[in-house]
Specification:
Number of helices of chain A: 0
Mean pLDDT of chain B: 93
Distance between the termini of chain B: 36 Å
Structural class of chain A: mainly beta
Helix content of chain A: under 10%
Helix content of chain B: under 10%
Low-confidence stretches of chain A: none
Shape of chain B: globular
Oligomer: heterodimer
Largest interface: A-B, 29 and 28 residues
Number of strands of chain B: 11
Radius of gyration of chain B: 13 Å
Shape of chain A: globular
Number of strands of chain A: 11
Strand content of chain B: over 45%
Radius of gyration of chain A: 14 Å
Order of helices and strands of chain A: EEEEEEEEEEE
Mean pLDDT of chain A: 90
Chain lengths: ~110, ~110
């Protein structure tokens, strides 16, 4: 069966360090993968998209990698700040073509301590 | 622009009651979808629509109906509420269906079924 797996355990790091979150998937061949941020009581907010032919994508302190051989995406936040504390969700397109459905992992909660 | 607007924000139902969760977007997006979010389960796709008059099922469609008579609105109907439908519901839209479209989420509707 198709699965998207993120580490369900919360990630606790010290301010200024790099946070690395993992998204693994099985039985998918996604054309692209997205990352979202969700704060408590709010809807998810889009952060980054990476396509299957891109190895890496950057946006300010954020970096995403996409390894279609390992079926894995890594999400990095460099110089982390307490304001980065949130739940981070990965998502990819299931199905095919323009009617593909965006399917989400369960999310990993990041806690950045001052 | 208001973005994606969901109503109500909170609702308590008794088992067997029916209700409609409203979702409206003012971005002229063609793609709209409904997710439910439960602890430890992440976001699960209920139904989606790629345009007015076109709807399809997601991962967990049972017990829910949708229709898309206009581009702007995508209501979610619970026909006979059950305690298993206690959840937080998110409506999301995208300017383009499936391919590389980031999702814009509403703030969620928290439903409790007693």
């Amino acid at each position: 069966s198709q699965k998207i797996e993120q580490n369900s355990e919360a990630l606790n790091i010290q301010e200024g360090k790099t946070a690395t979150l993992t998204c693994n998937y099985t039985n998918y061949s996604p054309a692209y993968l997205q990352w979202y941020r969700q704060d408590p009581g709010r809807g998810p907010v889009f952060l980054l998209l990476i396509r299957e032919n891109e190895k890496e994508k950057r946006k300010e302190r954020l970096k995403v990698t996409f390894d279609t051989t390992l079926k894995q995406s890594l999400f990095h936040i460099t110089a982390s700040q307490p304001a980065d504390s949130a739940t981070y969700l990965c998502a990819l397109v299931g199905g095919s073509g323009n009617t593909g459905k965006l399917i989400f992992g369960q999310g990993t909660t990041l806690q950045v301590k001052p | 622009n208001a973005g994606v607007t969901q109503t109500p924000k909170f609702q308590v139902l008794k088992t067997g009651q029916s209700m409609t969760l409203q979702c409206a977007q003012d971005m002229n997006h063609e793609y709209m979808s409904w997710y439910r979010q439960d602890p430890g389960m992440g976001l699960r796709l209920i139904h989606y629509s790629v345009g007015a008059g076109i709807t399809d099922q997601g991962e967990v469609p049972n017990g829910y109906n949708v229709s898309r008579s206009t581009t702007e609105d995508f209501p979610l109907r619970l026909l006979s509420a059950a305690p298993s439908q206690t959840s937080v519901y998110f409506c999301a839209s995208s300017y383009r269906s499936g391919s590389a479209g980031e999702l814009f989420f509403g703030e969620g509707s928290r439903l409790t079924v007693l």
